[in-house]
Amino acid sequence: MRKEATTLKSSLEGIRVLDLTQIMAGPFCTMLLADLGADVIKIEKPAGGDDSRRMGEIVNGESAAFLTLNRNKRGIVLDLRTEQGKDVLWRLIAVSDVLVENFRPGTMSKLGFDYESVHLKHPQLVYCSISGFGQTGPWRDRGGFDLVAQAMSGVLSVTGTPETPTKVGVPISDLNAGLFASHAILAALYNRQHTGVGQYIETSLLEAAMAYTIWESNEHWVTGHVPQRLGTAHRASAPYQVFPTSDGFIAIGAANQRTWEKLTQALNRPDLRDDPMFLTNRDRMSHIPQLVEALTEVLSRKTTDEWLNLLDKTGVPAGPVLSVDQVYQHPQVIARNMNLQSEHPTAGTVHTIGFPVKYSDTPATLRSLGPVLGQHTSEVLAEIGFTKDQIDNMIEQGVIVPV
């Protein structure tokens, strides 16, 4: 029987998420859910809350990165080591759809909130764990960090110049783990619509990074070779990399034969098109040093903007290498509304990155920046039935912390 359509203001309206995470991977996961309208309740420890509150650039006592990673969330402070604190969490779980945690494996079990115990009482809950190396295996108990995951996944070994391995400039293991976790949570919620039952899902920084080594892993499996670092070059196409110009750098993606021929036209170098070393992609891949030398010699004669105009006219994909400040000045970024501003009670006006996905009917919205520590503690507890006297008593006992 077909269900009647329901109009929602946001995609995840009516979904409540308990966020027991900190730093990057977990908060990024729950930020994505909050952006889509989920009521995300961030639960922090009494002693200073999320460690990321003290990381990065500080604006009037607040971490700017924390404010973005925890935007659109409500925040409470709760001491889960106390019996009263545990009781509060159980009551929150009873009225929630999702729980996300990124403690070291075994921590939630010690607190009494392992998946088996929670599922027994509240089988509707989707329970998600994010860890450094996963919940099983000989490294399960080790703490994980983005750098370590990049190193162990192979990502670091194939990034950088042939002489020097280089960390990816952004915390790709953390962010990928958060992205995969949010994706899995949505799938589990969809499954729950049909079964009425939640499930346990888990991912790790290690696996999240490994999942992106598609070219490299398959190169190894097929050839038996160990993939090497190529700088900005591509593993299967040439020319597809960054080149210097007279005033900066330009990224050129001539990833197929037709585009390569268009590039030689834009450069006014038909001799390169007809050179036996560069006739086919296989030829060009076999002669990358000679190809790079020839193209660098030509491209260094004009500015980046001059080349961009010529390449655009001939249909060659290309773009400038922009610094972060230049990114937010670019007309395409401005047109896509990727620099948002909002007011915070202590930090004042703060910028935050815009939403990378646009929805026609249920768009992501910026409702608030990351909460002040304990900002919504009393509000949330009142919603789940605690009286003012009970809340005041827990404040006095140090179980909860209000603003």
TrEMBL record:
<dbReference type="GO" id="GO:0008410">
    <property type="term" value="F:CoA-transferase activity"/>
</dbReference>
<dbReference type="InterPro" id="IPR044855">
    <property type="entry name" value="CoA-Trfase_III_dom3_sf"/>
</dbReference>
<keyword id="KW-0808">Transferase</keyword>
<dbReference type="InterPro" id="IPR003673">
    <property type="entry name" value="CoA-Trfase_fam_III"/>
</dbReference>
<dbReference type="InterPro" id="IPR050483">
    <property type="entry name" value="CoA-transferase_III_domain"/>
</dbReference>
<dbReference type="InterPro" id="IPR023606">
    <property type="entry name" value="CoA-Trfase_III_dom_1_sf"/>
</dbReference>
<dbReference type="Pfam" id="PF02515">
    <property type="entry name" value="CoA_transf_3"/>
</dbReference>
<protein>
    <recommendedName>
        <fullName>CoA-transferase</fullName>
    </recommendedName>
</protein>
